[in-house]
Write a sequence for this structure.
């Protein structure tokens, strides 16, 4: 088990490292890595270094954070609700985070709590609000509600929150609208380190909390009562898990908008590769989620370069058919 | 019946799911002796499953007291409970593609620290549990691909890996065909003899109860109708009182235990 964990994480870690290093080099402006790290040229004159560190690296880091945040949230939801189709998107949690963030952006809310600025804060509150509803659903699931009902409730919640979003857009300033629309498609237009730091605080906390969960998730995925009879405090574990998942969804959405399908595609590919044990699946999904969004964003930046696609379009084009394939595979 | 002389003891236990609703378990007093296989019989809705939940500590009684070896279960943590009592549910579905060995290793959870991985000792215990349930050959199979009977035996192995002295089983043969029913009954009898595991088994299968159980508890509307050795409790009157069915309860000449043959609706 220990060997399997180490080998898997080393492999996924290496993949993430490679993606993280290669992605900032590739782009519509060609740069040379030797010039980037050439200390003899002052930074102000080193265009390659500026492109690397200012234009591209923050974006790659943001992609990595968003990817791992959404993937981890996906893993947690799927185990908790014992449904491989649960994810921040399908449960309406992403929509909640989006609504929160959109309110903060549109109405220029300017508060900060413990170093967390308004947008990540609002998007966390939004996801937590949506999650409150999911929690009630999870409680219903414990009493035997079918998982189809849960997913349908997620669809309804998303549609409802989507309507509120459009309502806000209509009252919003005309010039904000384009920016909002682009952001809502999921885009990683991050060109400074400030929002990354702001998102890093809640995300670090979320991951630290999630670190205590994997074995509990294994047991809960076999059924709440089975887990309890094996020694898991299910209610407590659920609360901790949902807090962690809503924090990481909120942080991810505040950074990149509601980038769809990451929370469902990534955990599935990881499970196909490494099996079901969450002690491997959870960290591997965090790493693979980072790689996945970095690659999708690379495609988004370069496919029709210099025109940039929102990364959400790329993940949706990959994720939509993948989701359908999953559904059909489950039916078969 | 004093709590001290029993491995598991319930004293005047009551429970309701709905605060104003009727009591699902209504003043049950029950002692389970070490090494016994106690069968819980009763019609649908008589409180069998709820009583098992109460005994496993999954739900807390609204009144009354349940003790394990004289210790009130309310004072034990979930982990401590799980080291004393293991539960085999009616059916087990895995949402994800766990292997058989992985499922059985989950039984080791209450014995491990929060961040501790299973060691060689835990794997040895899990393999031994697989061997004891005749599922050693399935070790690396995917749980989801097993037949109903295989799944049930693997889940029993997982419960054995918990190394608890008490095993609670909720209708362990409900969804199995005759062959698997027979296998499970034989397995449970063997585990009881060889490992001195005390068992409480709820079932609708009167013939299974007759073969397997050393004593029976008859439940109706959440109350204990009778409790005693199988030979004494299982008879035409009790079957009629429980299920409203006239039946012949006779000793089978070749099997050597009681058999129940339903004849007609009694009402």
């Amino acid at each position: 088990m220990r060997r399997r964990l180490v080998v898997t994480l080393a492999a996924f870690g290496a993949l993430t490292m490679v993606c993280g290093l290669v992605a900032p080099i590739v782009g519509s402006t060609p740069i040379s890595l030797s010039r980037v790290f050439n200390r003899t040229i002052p930074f102000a004159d080193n265009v390659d270094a500026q492109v690397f560190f200012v234009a591209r690296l923050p974006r790659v880091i943001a992609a990595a954070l968003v990817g791992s945040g959404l993937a981890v949230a996906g893993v947690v939801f799927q185990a908790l609700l014992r449904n491989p189709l649960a994810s921040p998107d399908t449960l309406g949690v992403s929509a909640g985070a989006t609504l929160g963030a959109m309110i903060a952006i549109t109405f220029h809310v300017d508060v900060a709590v413990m170093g967390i600025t308004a947008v990540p804060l609002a998007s966390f509150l939004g996801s937590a609000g949506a999650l409150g509803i999911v929690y009630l659903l999870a409680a219903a699931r414990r009493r035997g509600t079918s998982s189809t009902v849960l997913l349908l409730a997620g669809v309804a919640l998303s549609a409802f929150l989507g309507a509120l979003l459009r309502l806000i857009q209509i009252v919003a300033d005309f010039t904000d609208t384009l920016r909002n629309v682009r952001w809502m498609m999921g885009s990683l237009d991050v060109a400074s380190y400030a929002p990354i730091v702001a998102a890093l605080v809640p995300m670090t906390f979320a991951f630290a909390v999630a670190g205590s969960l994997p074995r509990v998730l294994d047991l809960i995925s076999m059924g709440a009562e089975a887990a309890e009879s094996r020694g898991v405090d299910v209610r407590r574990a659920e609360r901790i898990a949902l807090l962690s998942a809503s924090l990481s969804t909120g942080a991810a959405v505040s950074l990149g908008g509601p980038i769809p399908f990451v929370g469902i595609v990534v955990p599935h590919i990881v499970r196909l590769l490494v099996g079901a044990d969450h002690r491997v699946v959870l960290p591997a999904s965090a790493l693979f989620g980072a790689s996945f969004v970095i690659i999708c964003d690379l495609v988004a930046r370069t496919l029709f370069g210099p025109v940039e696609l929102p990364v959400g379009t790329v993940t949706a084009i990959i994720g939509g058919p993948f989701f359908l394939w999953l559904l059909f595979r489950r039916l078969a | 019946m004093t709590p001290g002389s029993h491995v598991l003891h319930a004293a005047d236990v009551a429970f309701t799911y709905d605060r104003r609703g009727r009591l699902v378990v209504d003043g049950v007093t029950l002692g389970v002796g070490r090494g016994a296989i106690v069968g819980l019989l009763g019609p649908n809705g008589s409180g069998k499953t709820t009583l098992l939940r109460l005994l496993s500590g999954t739900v807390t009684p609204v009144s009354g007291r349940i003790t394990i070896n004289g210790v009130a279960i309310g004072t034990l943590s979930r982990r401590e409970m799980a080291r004393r009592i293991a539960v085999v549910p009616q059916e087990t579905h895995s949402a994800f593609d766990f292997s058989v060995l992985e499922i059985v290793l989950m039984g080791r959870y209450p014995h491990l620290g929060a961040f501790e991985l299973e060691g060689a000792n835990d794997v040895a215990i899990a393999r031994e549990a697989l061997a004891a349930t005749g599922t050693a050959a399935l070790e690396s199979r995917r749980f989801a691909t097993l037949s109903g009977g295989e799944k049930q035996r693997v889940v029993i192995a997982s419960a054995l890996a918990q190394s608890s002295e008490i095993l609670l089983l909720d209708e362990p043969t409900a969804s199995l065909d005759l062959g698997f029913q027979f296998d499970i009954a034989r397995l449970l009898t063997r585990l009881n003899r060889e490992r001195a595991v005390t068992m409480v088994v709820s079932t609708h299968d009167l013939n299974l109860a007759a073969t397997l159980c050393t004593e029976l508890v008859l439940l109706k509307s959440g109350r204990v109708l009778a409790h005693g050795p199988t030979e004494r409790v299982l008879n035409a009157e009790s079957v009629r009182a429980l299920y409203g069915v006239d039946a012949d309860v006779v000793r089978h000449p070749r099997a050597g235990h009681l058999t129940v043959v339903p004849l007609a609706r009694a009402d």
